[in-house]
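Exercise 3.2. Students should predict the tertiary structure of the chain below and write it as structure tokens, then compare their answer with the key that follows.

Predict this chain's 3D structure.
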Amino acid sequence: RGRLARQIFSKLCIEKIEKEREINRVREEFSKFKMEKAEQDDEFARMREENAKLKKQLAELLRTSQELGALMRLRRDQQGGRTHAEDDPAAGDDARQVLEDRQLASTEPDKLNSSDSSSAFIENEHWKKVCH
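Answer key:
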């Protein structure tokens, strides 16, 4: 009876050791998984930040493209001797809006000195004559 009890006890000890090894292996895998997930989360955060930057750049490029398009139409119309109303009334409005926006941006109080103000006024008057 003592021998059988020792055999059963030894068998149970071996099973316990095997289960502890399995538990440790699973813990290591889980720890590795958590680290990989944290790295992925960091990568996703970087991707979201980069995506936001790219969206801002795209919006800026689109705005610049619209401004350039309006200015090119204005230049083309000036060189061709046509008015915007003859070809495309909206094109003239676009060009005027771009010029007004630029004029407003160039006359912000913290960015002005006296020469900027006078040249902006002269340029504004010039464009008013051209656009009307």
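Discussion points: The longest helix spans residues 2-80. Confidence is low (pLDDT under 50) at residues 108-117.
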